[in-house]
Automatic annotation (TrEMBL):
Pfam families: Aminotran_5. GO terms for molecular function: O-phospho-L-serine:2-oxoglutarate aminotransferase activity; pyridoxal phosphate binding. One of its GO terms (biological process) is L-serine biosynthetic process. Keywords: Amino-acid biosynthesis, Aminotransferase, Cytoplasm, Pyridoxal phosphate, Pyridoxine biosynthesis, Serine biosynthesis, Transferase. SUPFAM superfamilies: PLP-dependent transferases (SSF53383). Homodimer. CDD domains: PSAT_like. It is an enzyme of class 2 (transferase). This is Phosphoserine aminotransferase. L-glutamate binds at R42. The lineage of its organism: Bacteria, Pseudomonadati, Pseudomonadota, Gammaproteobacteria, Methylococcales. Residues 4-348 form the Aminotransferase class V domain. The modification N6-(pyridoxal phosphate)lysine is found at K196.
């Protein structure tokens, strides 16, 4: 087996131990004579898998009892719509912070349901920073304040939880959930697609404070209604059982790694050395203000753009793949989520140094 270091932004690398266990369990799960994906989602075996995944997520993130955990479909993009549909609660306005392309997508979807006030935006700086907190204008009449914890394309990450001036705080954590410990009690709602730090695509996790649900707009489709999904154990329709099982395996793996404090320490080491290598070179550069650089997605450019194709080809030959930047911004991006081993980052850095020595 020749696995590569896969720097894709998502779907992205999964822990090898998880893949090997899934392979082992594929044809005959726990002596049932069938695979997980052939079982009824309502049978006791699959319900056990689902319950264990929720318990493990609650343990890893220390989720308080007054929060519901939902495992849904439609991705984070579905949540861009589900959030206003569920959380407007009779209000007509919401408030969003705009820190990049994913914030903008969330904003334009919310605009289909209500008016969106922009509390702050870093668009003018080319999304290279997070707007100064003192300058945020949070509308007290808004139903909630929304922000994107990690901009997957731009490589900008909040290093702490912003103050929401009393509004329920809603966060898109698709690309950094489970990368560090988190104080869930600061949030009204968190959502995250699984395909970066939690498992394969096809499943999205919603963590929502109980008192905020049960007032969805009348026209809300049942599968997007948090209260109905909470009451139905996230099984209002047939859930993506295999994806849910794989997500559960990733959570078990995270616990084996020592939990989120240990995972965070490794993520800090990985990101610090990669940024140090970029900053210390004449060939590579990263445009993001140091205080808000992402630990998960590290975009970089080459001073000599004519070398871009050679860089990708030589990286691929060295087993380092999917380093292209997002099509909307170009350049390069190394996504180094939880499942990227530290040796993967070390190998990338050694490759970049050698490439600079040869061509720089
Ligand atoms: N938000 C963020 C921060 C993302 O990175 C992505 C996916 N790249 C999405 C939302 C959209 O997720 P999905 O494709 O699961 O709808």
């Amino acid at each position: 087996m020749a696995r590569v270091y896969n720097f894709s932004a998502g779907p992205s690398m999964l822990p090898e131990a998880v893949l090997l266990r899934a392979r082992e369990e594929l044809p005959d799960w726990h002596a049932t004579g069938m695979s997980i994906m052939e079982m009824s989602h309502r049978g006791k075996d699959f319900v056990g898998v689902a319950e264990k995944s929720e318990a493990d997520l609650r343990e890893l993130l220390a989720i308080p009892v007054n929060y519901k955990v939902l495992f849904l479909q439609g991705g984070a993009t579905g949540q861009f719509a589900a959030v206003p549909m569920n959380l407007l609660r009779g209000k007509s306005k919401v408030c969003y912070v705009n820190t990049g392309l994913w914030s903008e997508k969330a904003i334009s979807e919310a605009e289909r349901y209500c008016s969106v006030a922009i509390a702050a935006s870093s668009k003018e700086s080319g999304f290279a920073t997070i707007p100064n907190r003192a300058d945020w204008r949070i509308d007290p009449d808004a139903a909630y304040l929304h922000y994107t914890a990690n901009e997957t394309i731009g490589g900008v990450e909040f290093q702490d939880i912003p103050d929401s001036a009393g509004l329920p705080l809603v966060c898109d954590m698709s690309s950094n959930i489970l990368s560090r410990p988190l104080d869930i009690s600061r949030f009204g709602l968190i959502y995250a697609g699984a395909q970066k730090n939690m498992g394969p695509s096809g499943i999205v996790v919603v963590i929502v404070r109980e008192d905020l649900i049960g007032q969805a707009r009348t026209a809300t489709p049942s599968i997007f209604d948090y209260k109905k999904q909470a009451d139905g154990g996230s099984m209002l329709n047939t859930p993506p059982t295999y994806n849910w099982y794989l997500l559960g395996l990733v959570l078990e793996w995270l616990k084996e790694q020592g939990g989120l404090a240990a995972v965070e320490a490794r993520n800090v080491r990985k990101a610090e050395k990669l940024y140090a290598a970029i900053d210390g070179s004449r060939l590579y550069s990263n445009p993001i203000e140091p205080g808000c650089r992402s630990r998960m997605n590290v975009p970089f450019r080459l001073a000599k753009t004519d070398l871009e194709k050679t860089f990708l080809a030589e990286a691929k030959a060295a087993g380092l793949v999917n380093l292209e930047g997002h099509r909307s911004v170009g350049g390069f991006r190394a996504s180094i989520y939880n499942a990227m081993p530290e040796e993967g980052v070390d190998t990338l850095i050694a490759f970049m140094r050698e490439f600079e020595r040869k061509h720089g």
